[in-house]
Amino acid sequence: MHWKTLILLLFYYDAHATVTPRWNRAVLFPTAQRAKRSSSDLTDPVLQNSLEDVDLLYEFLLAQLKIGKGLRISIKDEELASLRKAAAFDTVCNDIIPKSLTEIRRLSAKLSNYPTVLKKEDFERTVLTMVYTVYRAAQSRGHQKDAWAESFVSLYQALKHDLMFSDSKNPS
Questions:
Q1: Residue at 75 is within a domain
Q2: Domain count, the chain
Q3: Which of 13, 73, 145, 151 would staple 140 via disulfide (CB 3.0–4.6 Å)?
Q4: Which residues does UniProt assign to the signal peptide (predicted)?
């Protein structure tokens, strides 16, 4: 009797899922929802809330990043790394953005079918994923280098589409 109930529930879930628009169910960065963090300030970090934040993010990237064992990303400059925003940067880079080619390709596929303008946090996470992808392409050789480069191009095209889509929705 229990297996019949399970099959009924699975059927109901599947039927409900086909009625719900696909993009409503698709989450671009699922690890952002399940990442465990010790600080409530970093529940779902967004790095760019002001022009100063944008400048600081640029400084983080310009100060050189280090990708260590386990693909952990850190800021080489100790002074910059000690800033409060650096903790949010660390969380986004190490707990949220995808790191494998498979995950990045999955993100690209979701982005290519995304029907609305990206949220601010999704846009910046996609940009940081592009930065990571370029780094991996530079460190790779042969077929792997080509695969990382193709992933970068796919992300670039998705962001370009998003920017064009947002311009058409908000003409100045």
A1: yes
A2: 2
A3: 145
A4: 1-17
